[in-house]
Amino acid sequence: MEWRTKPGQPVITVDNLGIEFLRGRKRKLSLREMVYRGGTSHDKETFWALRNISFEVGRGEAVGLVGGNGGGKSTLLKMIAGTLLPDEGKAQVREGVAPLIELTGGFIGELSARENVYLTAGLHGMSNDQIDERFDQIIDFAGPQVRDGVDKPFRHFSSGMQVRLGFAVITCLDEPIILVDEVLAVGDKGFREKCYQRMEALLEQGRTLFLVSHSEGDLKRFCTRGLYLKGGELAADGSMDDILEQYNVDIMSE
Ligand SMILES: Nc1ncnc2c1ncn2[C@@H]1O[C@H](COP(=O)(O)OP(=O)(O)OP(=O)(O)O)[C@@H](O)[C@H]1O
């Protein structure tokens, strides 16, 4: 693995990050609003899905993101991956990122699994020769059902098969930062165990991991540090054990 950062330099710096979304709720407009808004029926009301978020992540750290539904976990991962841009502040990432954020791994439904492997790995800087070399290894990891359907359109894959292929591709890239959203829950038990072993191997190589999970077992197994997102704010940043304790106390008092 080649590093762009020097030892001790953070690989991710998130500084006062904020993003605003449209609430997307429609409501009846008053005559006055219709006149001023040119008759559109869309509500332009916005809310901050994340705000005032600041933290740094060092090389090789394994960070677990926790928080209730809608707390902003996936949104934060997307901003680190660079697929969403902030409205305030910045997320500075100094190494390449391999994200598995959407269930579909960002793959294109109309293309075959094989074409998606080449497309995704190519976008992450791998040459066709390099992909040829790793192709079998990727498909072996994804399993026999994926191998049987490797030339079928990706959209015909079951959700479990989609995640198998997504995880296999993302973790065979040479990117130093790996983002995994709550996608492993879809895989069956055997596959999840294989994924866990691979994540352990990636951490041993010194890669940096961000894991979103609602499973305490998974978070404790992989993450040493936790970030707790609550209502779009960073409620706590500490050891994974402390963060889970705090989160559990909050859940009980809800
Ligand atoms: N593209 C979007 N447009 C408008 N609102 C959005 C968009 N994406 C996310 N949101 C909203 O932003 C908030 C944070 O969503 P996010 O998916 O980041 O939460 P989460 O912590 O990952 O939740 P979960 O645990 O349910 O996966 C939610 O209120 C969600 O509805």
Automatic annotation (TrEMBL):
ABC transporter domain segment(s): 29-251
A GO term from the CC aspect: membrane
Name assigned to this protein: Sugar ABC transporter
Any GO MF annotation of the entry: ATP binding
Source organism superkingdom: Bacteria
InterPro entries on file: AAA+_ATPase (IPR003593), ABC_transporter-like_ATP-bd (IPR003439), ABC_transporter-like_CS (IPR017871), ABC_transpr_TagH-like (IPR015860), Bact_Polysacc_Export_ATP-bd (IPR050683), P-loop_NTPase (IPR027417)
Family of this protein: Belongs to the ABC transporter superfamily.
Name of a matching Pfam family: ABC_tran
Gene3D superfamilies linked to this entry: P-loop containing nucleotide triphosphate hydrolases (3.40.50.300)
Keyword list, A-Z: ATP-binding, Nucleotide-binding, Transport
Lineage: Bacteria, Bacillati, Actinomycetota, Actinomycetes, Micrococcales
